[in-house]
Amino acid sequence: MTESRGTGKYEQLLERCTHVPPIATAVAHPCDDSSLSAVMEAAQARIIQPILCGPADRIRRVAKDLGVDVERYEIVDVPHSHAAAARAVELVRLGRAEVVMKGSLHTDELMGEVVKRETGLRTNRRVSHVFVMDVPTYHKPLMVTDAAVNIFPTLDDKRDIIQNAVDLARALGIERPKVAILSAVETVSSKIPSTIEAAALCKMADRGQITGAVLDGPLAFDNAISAEAARIKHIASPVAGDADILVVPDLEAGNMLAKNLTFMARADAAGIVLGARAPIILTSRADNERTRMASCGVAALYAHARRTTAAVAA
Question: How far apart are CA 120 and CA 114, in angstroms?
């Protein structure tokens, strides 16, 4: 992983977490040094209150090797990673946890339990992934969606992908996020289907099918993040050059964009999955400490915002 040049954007986000009580978090199979240390860091910072789901002896052995005390936290003893994923999901369904966190198991194994029709955490929304990125060359946090879950999203999928990201941005304190729907060009062309979908999504926002944000698209990447590029191309837009959220045409484009920013621009990328009954924290062994903490912080703020909204509605 390229060395991070943190700019303070994540630290500002984590500062918001100090005003939120620790969020009960079901951690699926934290059975290696990387995953358990990430949990302990977030717990010690009082961002999460972990419930550790996995083989208890193995969790305690890893904790001993790391020199950390896990006995102050609840350990749910299950025999293997598949059972750990199922139990973590069940804890959310039982109301005992508000967040799920990935440990040392494959993402597909955890997400398979999340999306099960009868026992999972499905809602009427499409599940999607958001990277909350600290890009040193950009003036504010930048979200990229979807770069990890939906391979070739439909127009209806993209509506949910955008709404999930908008809801997250608002939970992070962005009152009216600016959403740039990316394509290769900034004009609508029948030869490039993503431009037609971008235009349709903007009209859907006009009709109230997407709420809480300002949308524009299609926009090429340079127009979305550079006011100068937009000016040169005579693009008058409240989003161009000041986007909070970048919506990519498909997973391949999103994955390449996020990794380009990570390795070429030295960005950090905190990952979270939304659209389920609870946010899912996806950390990687390649993540540095501040990225792992930011992933937990993003999930905690989102869960807290949902709880507050539900309380007001009641």
Answer: 5
